[in-house]
Amino acid sequence: MGVINLSENNSLLNTFVAELRDIHVQNDKLRFRRNLERIGEVMAYEISKELDYGKIDTETHLGFSSSFCLSDSVVLGTILRAGIGFHHGFLNYFDKAENAFVSAYRKYKENHQDFQVHIEYIASPRLDGKTLIITDPMLATGESMFLAYKALLTKGIPAKLHIATVIASKQAIDFCEENIPEATIWAGAIDPGLDEHAYIVPGLGDAGDLAYGEKV
After folding, report:
1. What per-residue string of b and e applies to 101-121 under the rule 16 or more CB within 10 Å gives b?
2. How many angstroms separate the CA atoms of 81 and 214, rounded?
């Protein structure tokens, strides 16, 4: 359904992304997590412009006021663990949303180069007829996103699908457009390539480790 690269327009989001990338700022884990959250908030606002609204009347002390308020039933889906802070930014704005969580990880082979993506855990409400927004800060190959989405489809078929990421590779964008054509993809930035370990270049490193500490 399309790709929206938010870095193509000047906004505060570009400042937050630049700080995420900056090796001199990354050492401050609190700021790193807060920037993920702030980017989630900005993206939530942008995505909200594409959703459906209905008219409601609100009683005030002096009369009634008519407003158009969100009518979509939103489910926020997140790929653990790097997605937690990013997800929280979305939840700050879509505060009445239901939530879904998927654990996807890279299982490396003996050569420590090749890997397969494994889905280990899923918790989700029913998705039938709802608006599903899947958040993952780094979209490297697109395979984790594809498998997470397929896992979520066991809980029903959403009416609308949005994929939100902070930084994506061009390869991941192409992969998702081909394999998840029903999705609208929102990216804070799109980088040109991947290295030999399938990390985004220039990217920012391992978002999960930078937010929550190194894993073994």
Report:
1. bbbbbeeeeeeeeebeeebee
2. 12
Looking at 27-134, list the stretches that DSSP marks H as alpha helix, in order from N- to C-terminal side.
29-48, 83-93
CB 207 within 8 A of CB 185: no
**Burial of 85 (C-beta count, 10 Å sphere; 0-12/13-18/19+):** buried
C-alpha neighbours within 13 Å on the C-beta side of residue 61: 0
What is the rounded CA–CA span in Å between residue 34 and residue 187? 18
Q: In the structure encoding, which two tokens stand for residue 191, read together?
A: 């980088």
Q: In sequence order, what are the residues at sequence separation of 6 or more whose Cβ sits closer than 8 angstroms to the Cβ of residue 102? A: 77, 78, 79, 80, 119, 121, 122, 124, 148, 151, 152
What is the DSSP-derived secondary structure letter of residue 213?
-
Cis peptide, bond prior to residue 81, ω within 30 of zero: yes
pLDDT digits (tens, 9 = 90+) for 140-173: 999 989 999 999 999 999 999 999 999 999 999 9
The conformational region for residue 112 under phi > 0 = left, psi -120 to 50 = alpha, else beta, is: left
Which distant-in-sequence residues (6+ apart) come within 8 Å of 137 by Cβ?
A: 36, 39, 82, 83, 85, 86, 165, 166, 167, 207
Share of the chain above pLDDT 70, in %: 94
Residue 176 to residues 18, 26, 180, 199, 207, Cα–Cα distance (Å): 25, 28, 5, 17, 20
Q: According to the model, what pLDDT value does residue 198 have?
A: 87
Q: What is the DSSP letter of 59?
A: E
Q: Which of 92, 111, 104 is nearest to 148 (CA)?
A: 104
